[in-house]
Write a structure and sequence with these properties.
Helices cover 31% and strands 22% of the residues. It is built from 13 helices and 22 strands. Strands 1, 2, 9, 10, 11, 12, 19 and 20 form an 8-stranded mixed beta sheet that branches. Strands 13, 15, 16, 17 and 18 form a 5-stranded antiparallel beta sheet that branches. A 4-stranded mixed beta sheet has the order 6-7-5-14. Helix 1 (11-20) runs parallel beside helix 5 (148-161) and helix 1 (11-20) runs parallel beside helix 8. The longest helix has 20 residues, at 59-78. The model has no long low-confidence stretch (mean pLDDT 95).
């Protein structure tokens, strides 16, 4: 029996599991997908929000501001790219200006440092490519950007390095109360744990119902994005939002920590919790709105588009609590969930302590981790020294992103280990560049097949039946 079973290996589940391993190595992470970070964590805006948007007194406000302040140190410990680039929320008229002033005051009450409302001339001085009709903006210097799936993989990996067990392809279908805790069952297997932490994203309401809690519902909110080539990644330096609505923070234009330009998302409430299709209408809307916020975006440089699903809850706030003994809901973690994740993890542990969990910090806990992209940060001399020991670092596999065989092999051998091409892609950025894997995919498949000891044709793109090769032609 485990001390804890964490349902869901997204960024919140990963951060919670990592925090729990500060006290025990008896943690099991249950993920229905074939890898971590496959839900909302895989496809979102990658923003560390300053915290001015959430309602005063809400869990969102409290945990967003705290999480934002924690994020730089957490990323440094986990070897994850983080950049404090600041954010602008732009307005186009007097009504927008009034809204921005209200947001500014809310931010100050929430504890956000340095927020102010600035005029067009001030905006142009820090963001020359701002939209032609923008007249005013809320400036938040503490806003930042991060890679969400990289943070998730690092958090889950660090938890595993400290003893946690990851079970992928384990979809929880039932939860039974037993004498010492709970029995969680999939179609083929079961796990027992003294405590259960429900971090199941858009499915968190369905998991809660398994223990009789129907006090909330979660509906997916679909958001479509476009990602532009690194060639235009420096078109802006700040994250540029527009005045928020009841559907969220709206379309943004932002650099990424990897040098691309990201625009989106739309916001559409849907019922299908697996519908991540993009639409011509949605992407056209993204393009039109983004062009109002930032001038002269070269949309001919779009290299891919994608859709994410946010877990929109029925209460309007994060739902974090214990509806019954030894069971914690961490539900409806929509934006600013990524920003709040480190603080959510600490909050969950404090909640457990208030309800009888007793444990002392482990003396052998190691909260640090080598960066996934350490090779690119080395000097030429350091790279040459490493290549002498490991020649595979001299073999470039992905030309667009300059990713070597050594980096891919390290990713395949590091917790949590990828088992498909997209898993390698998320860990190394191999095939994330301009050609989107046109050159490097066969080499990645070969490395995966060799490392996993399977046939070349058994390697998939993203698990399931997403086979790439069916046999040899020559």
């Amino acid at each position: 029996m485990f001390d804890f079973a964490v349902i869901g290996a997204g960024v919140v589940g990963g951060m919670v599991a990592r925090e729990l391993t500060r006290y025990t190595d008896s943690v099991c992470i249950l993920e229905k997908g074939s890898d971590v970070a496959l839900g909302a964590t895989r496809a979102n805006s990658a923003i560390v929000h300053a915290g001015f948007d959430a309602a005063v007194g809400s869990l969102k406000a409290r945990l967003n501001v705290l999480g934002s302040k924690m994020m730089a140190e957490v990323c440094a410990d986990l070897g994850v790219k983080y950049k404090n680039n600041g954010s602008l929320v732009v307005g186009f008229n007097d009504d927008d200006e009034q809204t921005l002033k209200e947001l500014c005051e809310r931010g100050k009450i929430n504890g956000v440092d340095g927020v102010s409302v600035i005029c067009r001339d001030e905006i142009l001085s820090i963001e020359p490519n701002i939209g032609d009709k923008v007249t005013v903006a809320l400036y938040a210097p503490t806003g930042a950007i991060v890679c969400p799936y990289e943070l998730c993989m690092a958090a889950v990996g660090n938890a595993m390095d400290n003893g946690a067990i990851l079970r992928t392809k384990f979809e929880v279908k039932s939860i039974e109360k037993i004498s010492e805790g709970y029995k969680l069952s999939s179609d083929t297997d079961s796990v027992e744990a003294r405590y259960v932490i429900n971090c199941a994203g858009v499915y968190s309401d369905e998991v809660a119902k398994m223990i009789g809690d129907d006090s909330f519902t979660v509906r997916p909110r679909r958001g479509e994005y476009m990602l532009l080539d690194r060639e235009v990644g420096d078109h802006i330096s700040h994250t540029v939002f527009r005045c928020p609505s009841k559907m969220g923070k709206g379309v943004l234009v932002s650099p990424t920590v990897d040098g691309n330009l990201l625009v989106g998302p739309t916001a559409e409430d849907i019922d299908d919790k697996e519908n991540t299709a993009t639409t011509a209408e949605g992407l056209a809307k993204v393009r039109a709105l983004a062009a109002e916020q930032v001038a002269r975006i070269d949309f001919s440089k779009v290299i891919t588009s994608f859709t994410g699903l946010r877990a929109s809850g029925s209460t309007g706030d994060f739902i974090i609590g214990m509806p019954t003994d030894r069971f914690v809901n961490v539900a409806a973690i929509e934006s600013p969930g990524l920003s709040s994740a480190p603080a959510i993890a600490e909050y969950v542990v404090s909640l457990l302590r208030e309800n009888g969990y007793e444990a002392s910090p482990r003396s052998d806990f190691n909260g640090t981790r080598r960066p996934m992209h350490f090779f690119s940060d080395l000097s030429i001399e350091e790279k040459n020294e490493l290549i002498k020991v490991r020649p595979e670092y001299a073999h470039v596999i992905c030309r667009c992103e300059t990713i070597t065989e050594g980096e891919i092999l390290d990713a395949i051998r590091t917790n949590p280990r990828p088992t498909d091409v997209d898993g390698v892609k998320r860990r190394t950025r191999a095939s994330m560049g301009r050609c989107q894997g046109g050159f490097c995919t066969p080499y990645i498949i070969d490395l995966l097949a060799r490392e996993m000891g399977v046939d070349y044709t058994a390697v998939t793109k993203f698990g399931g039946k997403s086979y790439i090769n069916f046999g040899k032609t020559k």
